[in-house]
Amino acid sequence: MPSILFTDSLSVAIYVGEGSNLVKNLDDILSNNSQYRNDIVAFGIVADADKKNPEDVVAEYYSDLCKYFPNFPNQPGFVDINIPRTGIYVLPDNIYHGVLDTLLCECGKVAYPEYMERAESYLADFSEEEKNLLNGSHSIDKKLE
Hints:
The chain is an alpha+beta fold. Helix content is 42%, strand content 17%. It has 2 domains: 3-91, no CATH class; 100-135, no CATH class. The chain contains 6 helices and 5 strands; from the N terminus they run ββααβαββααα. The strands form 2 sheets. A 3-stranded mixed beta sheet has the order 3-5-4. A two-stranded antiparallel ribbon has the order 1-2. A hairpin with a 4-residue loop joins strand 1 (3-6) and strand 2 (11-14).
């Protein structure tokens, strides 16, 4: 179930898409409830790039979602202004691979530099295998190599 935020004139549904299950879940919802497609004023996705190039992440969503949203963008960070408005933002910054945590660490370096230095020093003592266990499938490095 989505979280619904609203004012007197606007409501926003935030649906946690479960990563790779998002398109299947949306297919189920939108194909069984055509009124949702008619009532949507805007549709956006915020996705992690993980270890992929952001353009590749967008391409996957584009190929699956353009049947419901013909103007769905084919590039990261773009919002189409047709109705419904559609857009996609690929974390951390529409350019590099990474995840939300990548962005949060960059913010931490600005707001709490001394704590981030300590944390990085602590993590530097871990082996690559231990870092992978802590990090799941996500890369600690920000920039594409």
